[in-house]
Design brief:
Elements: E1 3-6, H1 9-18, E2 24-26, E3 32-40, E4 48-53, E5 64-68, E6 72-80, E7 88-98, E8 112-120, H2 124-131, H3 135-154, E9 161-166, H4 173-181, E10 185-189, E11 194-196, H5 209-221, E12 226-234, E13 238-247, H6 255-259, H7 267-288, E14 291-306, E15 311-316, E16 330-337, E17 340-353, E18 359-368, H8 373-389
Parallel strand pairs: 1-14
Antiparallel strand pairs: 1-7, 2-3, 2-5, 3-4, 4-7, 5-6, 6-7, 8-14, 8-16, 9-13, 10-11, 10-12, 12-13, 14-15, 15-18, 16-17, 17-18
Helix pairs in contact: 3-7
């Protein structure tokens, strides 16, 4: 059965708003909920937030809420906005699965992926620790530093610079402690000695007072008022490196972080954004060192596609050598859009057994061989889905 994956803020808000009179069920615990106060948030993720209400105490924070309407099964994929508020959730994706009798959805049946390939990847940690910052890695680092600075500046952050480093080369007490704890670290205001230590952030109390005083003094000497260090993990949650975001102003120059750090537009969306970008950054490194590309199948049907074009489900027929592949491996495949072939690159996200001995995989798409490819795919997916969810 085909599915539509919706991620656009306006679309998600529209669907959630229509479900406020519908009872939804937690996919895991089967507890029933109603939705209240859907709102589009002007944060860096363009989020949609909802408040959930239950007739009984919440058993556990739901990850997925489902309901069945006349023609569709609807699944809201959600995650907490604030660890201190159980009933406030972000809807980051909606899955709509047409029921059998809804024949008008059949147009998605015609999509196929061609020349599906998968590659082995080098052990990034080993490559970086042995060879250091090669010319390939330095090129990627420079591109990503500029990329992150531009995005954060566009969303109200005042950034002096962004540094991307690797933990194999750290030589200070702080960075060694962060390498051991694998935790993020945030100096909100070096001048006032204010640190953020909630949500599992590293606490400076674990270091000596003399060291912390010297560290803060060095920040101020360099006109740095705040800095956020966010860990980067490779496959298997192996700590690889970090994003270091540096600002001349407290709280990265962002007024919302200063006034309401735990609010809907506060640090939560920023951390989710950095987590997404860290995953994309690691893919760029893995793709640069990918080797031995192997063609698994010449053509196979696409099962579902996300509205932003960055997520795709693909079905493999029985007998395809896919079941024992490693999640996170680089993949490439072609799609035909407007009669032209485009090659897309991404990573294998999931492998699930399907019906009749088929295998369903999930792919996260990061880039295309042509500059316009990603925007074309997003528009293509939106047009494809539009009629089905209107």
């Amino acid at each position: 059965m085909k599915k539509y994956r919706l991620t656009d803020q306006r679309t998600v808000l529209g669907i959630v708003s229509k479900l406020t009179t519908t009872v939804l069920q937690d996919k895991d615990t089967k507890q029933k909920f109603t939705l209240q106060n859907p709102v589009a948030v002007k944060d860096i993720l363009q989020s949609v937030h909802i408040t959930i209400a239950a007739t009984e105490p919440i058993v556990s924070k739901p990850k997925s809420l489902v309901c069945v309407l006349k023609d569709n099964r609807v699944e809201l994929r959600v995650k907490p906005v604030n660890p201190y508020q159980d009933d406030l959730l972000q809807v980051y994706e909606i899955l709509i699965e047409p029921l059998e009798r809804s024949a008008k959805r059949a147009s998605i049946e015609d999509i196929s992926a061609y020349e599906f390939k998968m590659a082995q990847t080098a052990d990034l940690g080993t490559v970086i620790s042995i060879y250091g910052k090669t010319s390939i890695i330095n090129q990627i680092l420079n591109q990503w530093q500029i990329h992150l600075e531009q995005i954060l500046a566009n969303y109200g952050y005042f950034i002096k610079k962004i540094q991307i480093g690797f933990y194999y080369a750290v030589d200070t007490q702080l960075m060694e402690a962060l390498a051991t704890s694998k935790a993020p670290y945030y100096v909100r205001d070096a001048n006032k000695r204010i640190f953020y230590t909630d949500r599992g952030f590293f606490s400076p109390k674990k270091l000596s007072e003399i060291y912390i005083r010297s560290y803060l003094d060095s920040l101020l000497v360099n006109n740095v008022k705040s800095t956020l260090i966010f860990p980067i993990f490779s496959k298997g949650k192996v700590l690889l490196g970090y994003f270091e975001i540096i600002s001349n102003l407290p709280d990265l120059g962002n007024p919302i972080l200063q006034s309401d750090i735990e609010g809907q537009e506060g640090i939560g969306p920023l951390l989710n954004f950095l987590d997404q970008k860290a995953e994309e950054f690691v893919f760029q490194l893995e793709f640069a060192y990918a080797k031995e590309w192997e063609t698994l199948i010449r053509t196979t049907p696409v099962r579902d596609i996300s509205e932003d074009g960055r997520g795709m489900g693909i079905t493999f027929p029985p007998g395809t050598d896919i079941e024992n592949r490693i999640v996170g491996s680089p993949v490439s495949f072609q799609l035909v859009i407007n009669s032209s072939p485009y090659t897309f690159y991404g990573s294998l996200r999931s492998i699930i057994k399907g019906d009749s001995d088929t295998t369903n995989i999930g792919v996260q798409i990061f880039q295309c061989d042509k500059p316009e490819g990603m925007s074309y795919l997003s528009a293509y997916a939106s047009n494809l889905i539009g009629e089905a969810v209107s």
